[in-house]
Amino acid sequence: MSEPKSLFEKVWDAHVVKRIEDGPDVLFIDRHFIHEVTSPVAFLSMEQRGLNVLYPERTFATADHNTPTINQHLPVEDPLSANQLAALETNTSKYGISHWGLGHYKNGIVHVVGPENGITLPGMTIVCGDSHTSTHGAFGAIAFGIGTSEVEMVLTSQCIMQPRPKKMRITINGKVHASVLPKDVILYIISKISASGATGYFVEYAGDVFSDMSMEGRMTVCNMSIEMGARGGMIAPDEKTISYIKGREFTPKGEAFEILEKYWATLKTDEGASFDKEYVFDASDIEPMITYGTNPGLGIAISKPIPQPDEVLDGKASYLKSLDYMGFNVGESMIGKNVDYVFLGSCTNGRIEDFRQFAAVVKGRKKADNVIVWLVPGSHQVEDQIKAEGILDIITEAGFELRQPGCSACLAMNDDKIPAGKYAVSTSNRNFEGRQGPGARTMLASPLVAAAAAVTGKVTDPRTLLN
Q: Is 431 within 8 Å of 413 (Cβ atoms)?
C-alpha cells in the first residue's frame, strides 16, 4: 500500500514537473491571475528578453488595487494608477490574455472574481502577484502569492520553482456561537499562534467549524493564512464546494465535469497522514474578535481587556511600540473606543455573505453621525446581488452609500485612504502601520463588528445589538 498523503501532498505532487536535488521543485501552474500593480514590470522584462506568453488562456487579468470606487466612468486622476491600468490593458491585448478592466461587467477584486466565475477549481495550482492568493485554497487548491520575477516566470513557462513547504493542520471542532463569523475564527487562530507562527508551512484547516462554513467563509479563512506567516491555506473540497462551482462560466460542463468530480472526491487527507505541526482548538472558546495592535496576531475577544506584555507572543518592546502607535494602553477595554471610519470590503470580506451580515445589524438603525463608512463590494456580481436581495434598500435607509467594486481601503494605493491618527474598524486583512494610509490606525474585525461600529460610532460588541 502507498503511504498516506495529506491533501497538500496530493495536489503538490500531481504538479511537480521536476525535482531539483537539494533545491526547489518545479511546479506546473494551472491558473495565473494578474492585476495592474505587479504585472507591468514582468511584461517589460519579457519584451526586453524577447519572450512570449506560453499559455495566455491560463492567465486572467482584472484591475482592482488602484481603481477608484466612485465615478469609475471618469478618467483615473492619479497618474501612477492611470499608467498601471493602461499598461495592463495594453499588455493583455498584446498577448491575448483575458482582461476585465474598469467598466467590464466581470471586473472586481482578483480573489473575488476568480472563484465566482468558476476559474478557481479544486486540485489546481494557482498563483498571482498578490499575497492573498491563498484565498483560493478554500476550494482545495494550492494557491499562493508570487513576486514580479515569478510572474514573468509563469507567463513565459507556466511553471515556477518553489521550495516544498512544511505541513501544518489546524483543527477546530464543535459549534461556534451565532455571532462568531469566519473572520473571527481566523483572527482567533492568529492570536493563538502569532503573526509568524505558521512561517514555512502550508496549512490545512480541518474539523467541524470549517465543514460547517460556507464557501465564502472558507475563502475568508484561507485569505488570512498568510497573516500568520503561512505560504497558504487550504480546505478539502466537499459537496458545498461542488455546489458552489457547478454551472459557473469557466467551470467544465457535462462529462468533463463528472470526470473531474470523481477526481475531486479523492482530494482529502488520508487517515494516518503526518503533519509537521498540528494545532487543535475548541469552537466554544471563540468570541467576536478585534485587533488592538499593528499586526493581525494582536487580537482579542472583543469583551476582553488589552493583555499584559507577558501574555502576548510578540516581544515586549515591539508590543508596547504597537500600543503606542494605536494610542491604546495595557488593560484597557476595546469596548467604547472611538471609531472614525468603517470599511466593509476587500478580498477578505467583500462578498455577498459579508453584506448580508452587515445588513442584519444595521436594518432598522441609522448610521452614526461621527463615522465615515465605506461599503465596497468585491465585484460587480456582488454589487448586483446586493441590489437584487434588497440589501441596498436596507443600507440606504440606514444612511449608508454603496461604492463601486475595488480593493478600496484595504491598502493605501487608491483614493480610499484613512487619514493620519484616525481609527478605522476594517474587515480587511492587515493592520500594519500605514497600511490604510500614513498614520492610520486600523482595527481588524468581522462584518458584524464593523456594522455595530457603523451604527454606534464606537467599538461595540455586536451581540448587544443582535440580542
A: no
pLDDT digits 0-9 by tens, 148-175:
999 999 999 999 999 999 999 999 999 9
Rounded to 5°, angle at Cα 154 from 108 and 269: 80
Q: Measured between alpha carbons, how far is 36 from 11 in angstroms, rounded to an integer?
A: 29
Could you identify the residue written with the cell 441590489? 387
Residue type, 217: G
Q: Counting every residue, how long is the chain?
A: 467
pLDDT in tens, 190-209: 999 999 999 999 999 999 99
* Whole-number percent of the chain with pLDDT over 90: 97
CA–chain centroid gap for 48, Å, is 34
CA R_g for the chain: 21
Query: 9-162 in CATH: which number?
Result: 3.30.499.10
Q: How many CB atoms lie within 10 A of CB 47?
A: 11
Fold matches, 166-285 and 289-466: no
Give the pairing type, strands 166-173 and 277-282. parallel
| Residue that the C-alpha cell 459557473 belongs to | 248
pLDDT in tens, 399-436: 999 999 999 999 988 999 999 999 999 999 999 999 99
Which backbone phi and psi does 386 adopt, to 5 degrees?
-60, -40
User: C-alpha grid cell for residue 136?
Assistant: 483560493
Task: Assess contact for 114 and 138: CB atoms under 8 A.
Answer: no
Domain residue ranges of the chain, discontinuous segments joined by +: 9-162, 166-285, 289-466
pTM of the model: 0.97
Q: Structurally, what CATH architecture does the domain formed by 166-285 represent?
A: 3-Layer(aba) Sandwich (3.40)
Rounded CA separation 360/467 (Å): 12
Calpha distance 132→144 (Å, rounded): 7
Neighbouring residues of 44: CB distance < 8 A, sequence distance ≥ 6: none
- The second-level CATH assignment, the architecture, of 289-466 is 2-Layer Sandwich (3.30)
108 neighbors 86 (Cβ within 8 angstroms)? no
What are the residues whose beta carbons fall under 8 Å from the beta carbon of 467, sequence distance 6 or more?
none
Q: Which residue has the cell 459537496?
A: 239
